[in-house]
Design brief:
- The chain folds into three domains: about 1-115, DnaJ domain (Helix Hairpins, Orthogonal Bundle); about 120-150 and about 215-260, Urease metallochaperone UreE, N-terminal domain (HSP40/DNAj peptide-binding domain, Sandwich), CATH 2.60.260.20; about 265-364, Urease metallochaperone UreE, N-terminal domain (HSP40/DNAj peptide-binding domain, Sandwich).
- It has nine helices and 15 strands.
- It has helices at about 5-10, 20-30, 45-55, 60-70, 85-100, 105-110, 135-140, 280-285, 345-364; strands spanning about 125-135, 140-155, 165-170, 180-185, 185-190, 200, 215-225, 235, 255-260, 265-270, 270-280, 285-290, 300-305, 315, 335-340.
- It starts with 5 loop residues before the first helix and ends with a helix.
- Mean pLDDT is about 85; it is low at about 95-120.
Length: about 375
């Protein structure tokens, strides 16, 4: 089944601004939230659809790819759908905070009556790492291993911070994880400072983690880089982030691409820019010149330089640029012309140039 146009899903024009986009999404999220439509089995699918549309259109880079190539352009850009409602809240918790209660999980939608339950499963944090690639690796794709470091639940105490995992009910909040206090005519609540919202405290601190409940973890993750990825774009590896606590799901790992400088080329989207330097005679008389191409076993291309070509003009080598993310061929190799003016000359060269200048003056 083909996906609907994201702008159509959110009911906005293609020129929509950030404020109007967010307003439309909030309205539709309220309308289609599963807890507001308990008798409608299709509500969750619609809720996830509008969340996916907003995730793309609210991201400048993904929106640009989508505007140019549609859904096909996002297949290799790390954009994935949401697996469930909690996954959506984990991405847009700040957006839902004032709509759905405590962090999007309380109020009429989370079953928590506006109060987060103590010891409830908590999703792990998202992780973000940079990955430096050569221009060739970004152009043609590569599989790499990256090292990820993060704090994980202590294996000795299973993340409780307690020796032997033995916990007792927090006396400050009576196991609720929150404490209430009066502020004038209002009754307010906040996270219990004693147990930090867990509702329980260790009987004795775990010796392995000194009661922190966490230990440092280093692991390696394989990531497949799609052909055509560009500087600043990211890949999302679902469930490869920091582990959750108390049985909660792991977060996501975002791999942000960085490009190393290249010996010959600069990249502009799917096009490669090469500075083709010509001597004055070469630019004046024209001829055939070699231009390097990208690839481990790539051979030089030949370009025909027209006589009298000017600095700043360019020549194209079709199809020798970067493969496009959507799989629709490659960009072009652009040879940008510059004329190399020597700073030192032999006496013979000076004499010949003077004779040439006399010819120009005579023809003028």
């Amino acid at each position: 089944m083909s996906k609907r146009d994201y702008y159509e899903v959110l009911g906005v024009e293609r020129s929509v601004g950030e404020s109007e986009l967010k307003k439309s999404y909030r309205k539709l999220a309220m309308q289609h939230h599963p807890d507001r439509n308990p008798d409608d089995p299709g509500a969750e699918a619609r809720f996830k659809e509008v969340a996916e549309a907003y995730a793309v259109l609210s991201d400048g880079e993904k929106r640009d790819v989508y505007d140019r190539y549609g859904h096909a352009g996002l297949k290799n850009s790390g954009q994935q759908g949401f697996t469930n409602v909690e996954d959506i809240f984990s991405h847009f918790g700040d957006l839902f905070g004032d709509l759905f209660g405590m962090g999007g999980m309380g109020g009429p939608f989370g079953g928590g009556g506006g109060r987060r339950r103590a010891n409830m499963p908590t999703r792990g944090a998202d992780l973000r790492v940079g990955l430096a690639l050569t221009l060739e690796e970004a152009a043609f794709g590569v599989q790499r291993e990256i090292e990820v470091s993060y704090p994980a639940p202590c294996t000795s105490c299973e993340g409780t911070g307690a020796e032997g995992g033995e916990l007792s009910t927090c006396a400050s909040c009576q196991g609720q994880g929150q404490v209430a206090y009066n502020r004038g005519a209002f009754m307010l609540s906040s996270t219990c400072p004693t147990c930090r919202g867990r509702g329980r405290i260790p009987k004795a601190s775990c010796k392995a983690c000194d009661g922190a409940g966490e230990e440092p973890v280093d692991r390696r993750v394989k990531v497949t880089i799609p052909a055509g990825i560009d500087e600043g774009q990211s890949l999302r590896l679902s469930g490869q982030g920091q582990p959750g606590t108390r049985g909660g799901p792991a977060g996501h790992l975002f791999v942000v691409v960085e490009l190393e400088p290249h010996e010959h080329f600069r990249r502009e989207g799917a096009h490669l820019i090469y500075d083709l330097k010509l001597s004055f005679p070469q630019a004046t008389l024209g001829g055939e010149r070699p231009v390097p191409t990208l690839g481990e076993d790539a051979e030089d291309a030949k370009v025909k330089v027209p006589a009298g070509i000017q600095p700043g003009e360019h020549l194209l080598v079709k199809g020798e640029g970067i493969p496009r993310l959507d799989g629709r061929g490659r960009g072009d190799l652009v040879a940008l012309i510059s004329v190399d003016v020597p700073t030192t000359l032999s006496n013979k060269a000076k004499e010949l140039l003077a004779q040439l200048q006399e010819t120009f003056d005579a023809d003028a």
